[in-house]
Amino acid sequence: MLSKTIRYYNKRSLSVDVSAYTRVLEGFRACVGNTPLIRLPTLSKETGCNILVKAEYLNPGGSIKDRAALFLIQDALDKNLIKNGATIVEGTAGNTGIGLAHLCNALGFKCEKIDILRVLGAQVTTVPVVPFTDPNNYNHHARRYAEKHENSLWTNQFDNQANRNGHYLMTGPEIWTQTNGKVNAVVMSTGTGGTLAGISMYLKEKNNKIRTVLADPPGSVLYNYIKSGKLERTDGSSITEGIGQGRITDNLKDAPIDESLFIKDQDTVNMVFKLLCEEGFFVGASSGLNVAAAVELSKSMPKGSTIVTCLCDNGQFGMPKVNKIKSQLHAARACRESNIKVSSSSDSSNDEYTMDIDDNEFNFNEKLLLTDIRKVKNMLAY
Ligand SMILES: Cc1ncc(COP(=O)(O)O)c(C=O)c1O
């Protein structure tokens, strides 16, 4: 009976490889990291390079930041900076707070971040967005809060190098092992810089020829800093949350990063939809940015090269702006299907729409989406 079932599914290319799940993991903390490395077939075919993505949204708290959270807490434990019942304080745009809140629950600490954080038992204080140089910047709030409260620790994700050490010890070796050392470039957007710095430090030690590339959105200084050493912001602002920077964090300091790429928000958003409709992944804006950068990088790599990046988090949380764009896009399509006129940047025959969203103009190729959704259906109909 069993072998008949296996033969049935094998014939339909639906066999399941269970070799990766060979042991029982001990609790939340043991599930952080060791994420699958996935080849994106459509983009790999289009670019002539292997575009590989680490599925970081599969971490137990839902994002790449579980890794930083684990190492920030583990480092504090190793240095005896916290004892049972301590309160962990962090200034965060979201994902680090979620990772910390999960770990605090699992390890018996308390944690201070909005909706999902409160569900996880964290206490959240929201503060206005101001630059790091302003004493009211969220990082300084977090530091002061921890200083004022007994048995509290500010994990300081931006400047605590335990963050990048975690990626040096874990994410870098995972990429090296999963590719059998056959990796030619790694490209990543940065917030704290911990991910790219740690991975680059490890991979460069293994093979100095691996290209390490920082992908930067509008409004950040890092693109220019890596190109020319000048801390000059690029124009505009970005819909990506927690990505881009106005300074060089300690996690980014002296990291072996070779070059930088500037990625427009429109390319980021288009890639979020392409990943959804052509590759089947619903991921957040920073993942769109990362893969758009991998595609851009492939233009200057020999054919057959392997480029690694990350799908940092799931599209279902942390990206209200992209979700808003997506719902407007669906609304536009529904209107068109019902023959209701929507504002169009060009004649209706080429299906190009321009929508005004949060003062930014995004162009979407509706035809691409419709065609690709059909393609996905075909893919599933074996
Ligand atoms: C979804 C997401 N992707 C990427 C990053 C950047 O990672 P890192 O802080 O290691 O540079 C962040 C940082 O907050 C993030 O939330």
UniProtKB/TrEMBL annotation:
It is an enzyme of class 4 (lyase). Coiled coil: none annotated. The keyword Mitochondrion applies. This is Cysteine synthase 1. Catalyzes the conversion of O-succinyl-L-serine into cysteine, the last step in the cysteine biosynthesis pathway. Can also use O-acetyl-L-serine. It is found in: Mitochondrion. NCBIfam families: PRK10717.1. It catalyses: L-serine = pyruvate + NH4(+); O-succinyl-L-serine + hydrogen sulfide = L-cysteine + succinate. GO terms for cellular component: mitochondrion. GO terms for biological process: cysteine biosynthetic process from serine. Keywords: Amino-acid biosynthesis, Mitochondrion, Pyridoxal phosphate, Transferase, Transit peptide. Residues 32-313 form the Tryptophan synthase beta chain-like PALP domain. It comes from the Eukaryota. Its main location: mitochondrion. Pathway: Amino-acid biosynthesis; L-cysteine biosynthesis; L-cysteine from L-serine: step 2/2. Its EC number is 4.3.1.17.
